[in-house]
Amino acid sequence: MWNGLKMLVVAGAVVGFLGGFERASAQSATEKLGRGLTNTFLGVFEVPNQVFNTYRENTGKRIGTRETATMKALGVGTVRGFREAFRRTAHGVWDTVTFLSPGPGGNEFQPRMKPEYMEEVTNY
């Protein structure tokens, strides 16, 4: 019990310490760390996200049948997904490791990747 309480106090102290880096018009080290952890662990979900997005892009156009869109989504979407998953995970690891540094040129903890987080998949 006391070990858990000690861990909670230490975690609170770390979060409080990181909160001191915040500025009024910029993101903070805490937000950079959160963005980094999110992108590191959830970057793998870009694969199904890109497959779905590719399917959705190709069914709205009159380029062929749904079978064509399905094949394109499975082929092109999977490749896009792995590319974006690698890219998002790499940026997440970088943000996690360097969360205390504002970055080159004083970019004030701004994200290097757009969009900052994985875009949500809208209903089809």
Number of domains: 1
Number of helices: 4
Q: Segments where pLDDT lies below 50 for 5+ residues?
A: 15-25
State the end-to-end distance.
48 Å
Q: Which H/E pattern describes the elements?
A: HHHH
Secondary-structure-derived class: mainly alpha
Topology:
Blueprint: H1 2-19, H2 29-42, H3 46-59, H4 66-97
Describe the structure in your own words.
With 124 residues, this protein is an all-alpha fold. It has one domain. The chain is 63% helix and 0% strand. The protein has helices at residues 2-19, 29-42, 46-59, 66-97. α2 (29-42) crosses α4 (66-97) and α3 (46-59) runs antiparallel to α4. It is elongated. The model is unreliable at 15-25 (pLDDT under 50).
Features:
single chain; elongated; 124 residues; mainly alpha
In a few lines, what is going on in this structure?
This protein has one domain. 63% of the residues lie in helices and 0% in strands. The chain has helices at residues 2-19, 29-42, 46-59, 66-97.
